[in-house]
Design goal:
The chain is mainly beta. The chain has one domain: Lipocalin (Beta Barrel), CATH 2.40.128.280. Helix content is about 10%, strand content about 40%. The strands form 2 sheets. Strands 10, 11, 12, 13, 14, 15, 16, 17 and 18 form a 9-stranded antiparallel sheet that branches. The longest helix has 9 residues. The mean pLDDT is about 95.
């Protein structure tokens, strides 16, 4: 059954409240990162998709020209320290495309309009993230269990799907035997063999912006391919199953529904004081002359 047909049959989430502030929900593209040394990067392709309790992250130097061993992507539980207002992530070793943690610091966040400004506590960088969606379907599915259909073995893999209107993020990590091989590789080494590259990039993080096609991916073979929303079955109102094929093996992916809202309003604006609103209105002929919504 198609995923969207199943969604018509199940109730929406009674609450979207989670462990993090709701202004972080949605699909964000990084506009820039500026470093302590004065350098700024505005060209790398970086996406952050946020469900109620987990994150999918993709980082590429170029859409199709990033070497396999330099791609970055991961899925992890999202943690919030309310006292210090710090965001961090719990990412298993098997849930990271790379073999090391690329971003060890938590995030100090500040929301302005459709921007999320992320400051590293050490002030080594600041990132400017832009909300990509206004309203629409908000769905988060987190892989709970993966089962080899033929032998019934449970597989140690992770994955998830986040849909924010027409923006889609999908992650499925490597099969255990492949992950075991990749985990012992030096991904910074030059001259990796072709079969090794295939094993490395079997860790899929794919992002789409039109609701159908994978625009960016860690897996070369998945770029420009359609997302697979078929072969789903309903287990109960909180659990879905999808049958897929990996390396010739039939595997059932069992997903927990992390969040489901058919028409969610994502945050595009933030609050300010009445005096500040009055100031902006009175000075708008200058301040807003060139202003526009920037994603």
């Amino acid at each position: 059954m198609n995923l969207f047909d199943i969604l018509q049959k199940i109730p929406e989430s009674q609450t979207t409240a989670g462990p993090i502030p709701s202004y972080l929900y949605g699909a964000f593209r990084r506009k820039s990162i500026s470093f302590f040394n004065g350098l700024t990067d505005e060209d790398s392709i970086v996406y952050w998709f946020q469900s109620r309790s987990f994150t999918i992250d993709l980082r590429l130097k170029h859409r199709s020209g990033t070497p396999a061993h330099e791609r970055q992507g991961w899925i992890g539980n999202t943690l919030w320290d309310a006292e210090q207002a710090l965001l961090s992530w719990q990412v298993a070793d098997t849930a990271n495309y790379q073999n090391h943690v690329q971003w060890p610091e938590p995030a100090k966040l500040h929301a302005i309009g459709n921007c999320i400004l992320e400051f590293s506590p050490s002030n080594v960088y600041v990132e400017d993230w832009r909300q990509q969606v206004h309203s629409g379907l908000y769905l988060g599915l987190r892989l709970k269990t993966a089962v080899d259909v033929e032998c019934g073995e449970q597989l140690n893999i992770d994955g998830g799907l986040i849909i924010c209107d027409q923006h889609v993020a999908y992650t499925l990590t490597r099969l255990p035997e492949i992950q075991n091989l990749v985990s012992h590789l030096d991904l910074t080494a030059d001259g990796l063999e072709t079969h090794t590259i295939e094993q490395i990039e079997s860790f899929e993080v794919s992002i789409g912006t039109d609701g159908h096609t994978k625009s960016y991916s860690t897996s070369s073979g998945q770029s420009n391919q359609p997302f697979n929303f078929d072969a789903f079955d309903l287990i109960d109102d909180f659990t879905l199953k999808q049958r897929t094929c990996l390396n010739g093996r039939q595997i059932d992916l069992i997903f927990d529904i992390d969040v489901y809202q058919s028409n969610y309003l994502f945050q595009q604006q933030t609050l300010t004081t009445p005096d500040s609103e009055h100031w902006l209105k009175s000075e708008q002929s200058h301040l807003l002359h060139h202003a526009q919504l920037t994603l």
